[in-house]
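Give me the fold.
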Amino acid sequence: MEKTAPRVAIAVMVFLPLAFLGLFFLWPTLRIIGLGFSGTAAGLGSGGSAGFGGALREMFGRTRTWTTLFWTLEMGLLGTIFSVFLGVAGAWVLYGLRIPGRRVWRTLTGVPFVLPSVVVGVAFQNLLGPGAPLGFLGLSESRAAIILAMVFFNFSLVARIVGNAWMRLDPRPAQAARALGASPARAFLTVTLPRLGPAIFAAASLVFLYCITSYGLIRVLGGVKITTLEVEIYLETASYLNLSGAAVLSILQILIVLAALGINGIARARFERAGALRTVPPRRVRPEDTFALVLTGFGILLVAMPLIFMVVASLRLAGRWTLANYRALGQPGIVAQLPGTAWAAWGYSLQVALLSCVISLVMGLSVALVVSRRVPPNSRWRGAQELFDMLFSSPQGVSAVTVGFGMLITLQAPPLSLPANAAFLAAAQAVVAVPLVLRSVLPTLRAINPHLREAAATLGANRLQSFVTVELPILARVSGVGAGFAFAISLGEFGATSFLARPLEPTLPVAIFALSSRPSAQAQGVSAAASVVLALTCALVMFVAENGFAAATRDPQRGLPKKRRTRT
């Protein structure tokens, strides 16, 4: 019995996540690939050319497809270039210099991490749209506005990655170059910048991935003029009922995302190998830092201005200060696309996010416990663990829009025809969140000293007792961290949800998009108010998660039961 119970537990922790992944991710993804090549969709309107490869020929024969691909890559590359340009300057200032309020500025630039993309779209709409403070620039529904929003998201990401690497660079090579007569700019370009190359490349590949999958930004800021692969997938499905064409575009996007992930993996490996163990303290500001200070100031302004004007827009109506927009959150039918109230949508979002959090936590912890088991290096189980880890990391290579589309044509079509209820939405959002939970928990589990398990076994504890005594206290603490991240991600998820949410039960991001797409002043004001509510909710959740993460990772062995003294 003592030997059977652990085996049963391991079997459950293996087969339950595999069943979840197979049903909600692998099967829909394979269905998309098959649909893209076959050009048929049984039971649903398919459109396009029938026969093997018919949809491929039709879609790649369209000028619109190539235009969409060009715009996706163009905006992704430009967003990456500008994010890296400002982010490297931000790393120079925020991580390398002693400036007043350095921690405050770091916190401010990290705000975009907690914001759903649809909220950022509304924020820039209230900054650059018609009648907005910067509306005179004519950037409404333009690619320039979208690129600025991409930089808003990714400026702090680049600054954080490059800044952490910069702090660990040995300053002596640059000092030697200066002593030999090199100017500060030349010393930076010839000595410092090449050594930061792996970190910059890793950050750039990750930013490019985020830029080309910015579905919410494009839907809110692009209007009907601008499209990307993700938006086109939605339009081919929802507007034209061309499911085979949408499948072709999904395959194309999967290939691009996988290429970006592969490049990021190579760059990250080089970055980790190049890392040093020392930390260089920040230095005083010098005259040669002026250019970096100016660029960083622009980056901080880019982060602050949209948020400020979104809050201002939520507090104004008909040219006066008021709380009417917030009171209107409780009024039904503000726009036809939102039959209920925004508060009802917020409550439904919380319900779905909570369910998604539970699913993500159960699946992520099960996978983490299996993958973190120590096995001999040459054991056949080592390869099985690596395959298991890779399978549950694979949703990172598919955008949320593709996940939603795959579930729509697979699970909401005959023979299953699963209802689009809260549990179904939660499962879709959990597919996106499980890899995040896994990556949050796994390093801490792997950091547990194996001698603790051996000591417990020596004292007579069986596997279950050893798990309860050694691993469970740590697992309980890091689980809260993973749950917080999963909850926040699910709360603001818009890509998959836009396919799957029922019109009568929208989530708050879907409601915000419906409000923001209406030209009336009331709808715009209420969308700003709803965006503020969603942003504050996500910020609160992420604040708790970040603080929990810091506490949980400060000492991986902290919280373990102390050794008991026995009486003699």
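Residues 41-49, 555-568 have pLDDT under 50 and may be disordered.
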